[in-house]
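Exercise 7b. C-alpha cells:
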C-alpha cells in the first residue's frame, strides 16, 4: 500500500535526476537545459518542504500500489516529455522565454503554496468557506497556481507536445473544481461567495451566480 502523497512525491523526487540524466545522455549543457532544471528542480524542493509542513490530508489515504502507479504517478511522469524534447533536440528557445517562464513559475508557486497554506491553517481553526486572502476573488487559487507553474515549464520546453499534457490535466482540474463547487453549494453562504469570485481566474467585479 502507498498513499497518493507518496506517489506524487516519488514523481517530484525523480524530476531533477531525470533532467540531469537527459542532459548527460544528450550532451546538452545549454542555458535552456539548465533553466528547465532550475525551475522544475526548485519547484520540487519547495513541494517537498510543503509536504513536510502542511501536506494535503485528502491525499494521505492508503491506496494499492498499482493504483498509485497508474494514477497519479504515470500521468505526472508525462510532464517529462517537455524536458526530453527540449534536451534531446537541443532546442534553443527565444530569449524572452527565460523571463516569461520564470515569471509564470514564480507567480504560480506563490499562488499554489500560499493558498494551500492558508487553507490548511484556517481549517485547523474552523470549518466553513474561506472567503478572504487569496480566496477572495477566485475559489481555486491553488489550481490557478499549478496551471501557471506547468505553463511555465511548457514554455521553457518550447514545444507543443507538453501543452497537450497540460491540457489533459486542465480538464481534470476543471472536473475537481466543479465537484468542489457542488460540495460548497450546500452551505448557505456559498451563493453570495460565488457572485464575487471566479471558479479559476480572479473575478474583477461582482457577477451573477450561474
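Sequence design result:
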Amino acid at each position: 500500500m502507498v498513499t497518493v502523497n507518496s506517489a506524487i512525491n516519488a514523481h517530484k523526487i525523480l524530476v531533477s535526476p531525470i533532467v540531469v540524466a537527459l542532459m548527460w545522455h544528450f550532451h546538452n549543457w545549454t542555458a535552456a537545459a539548465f533553466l528547465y532544471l532550475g525551475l522544475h528542480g526548485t519547484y520540487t524542493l519547495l513541494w517537498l518542504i510543503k509536504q513536510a509542513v502542511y501536506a494535503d490530508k485528502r491525499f494521505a489515504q492508503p491506496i494499492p500500489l498499482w493504483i498509485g502507479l497508474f494514477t497519479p504517478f504515470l500521468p505526472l511522469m508525462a510532464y517529462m516529455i517537455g524536458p526530453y524534447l527540449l534536451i534531446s533536440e537541443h532546442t534553443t528557445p527565444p530569449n524572452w522565454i527565460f523571463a516569461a517562464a520564470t515569471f509564470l513559475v514564480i507567480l504560480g508557486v506563490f499562488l499554489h503554496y500560499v493558498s494551500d497554506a492558508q487553507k490548511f491553517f484556517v481549517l485547523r481553526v474552523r470549518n466553513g468557506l474561506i472567503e478572504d486572502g487569496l480566496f477572495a476573488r477566485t475559489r481555486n487559487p491553488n489550481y490557478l497556481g499549478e496551471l501557471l507553474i506547468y505553463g511555465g515549464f511548457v514554455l521553457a520546453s518550447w514545444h507543443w507536445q507538453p501543452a497537450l499534457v497540460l491540457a489533459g490535466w486542465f480538464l481534470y482540474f476543471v472536473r475537481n473544481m466543479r465537484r468542489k463547487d457542488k460540495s460548497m453549494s450546500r452551505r448557505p453562504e456559498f451563493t453570495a461567495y460565488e457572485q464575487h469570485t471566479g471558479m479559476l481566474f480572479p473575478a474583477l467585479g461582482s457577477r451573477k451566480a450561474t
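Instructor comment: Residues 96-125 form the longest helix (30 residues). Residues 2-195 form one domain.
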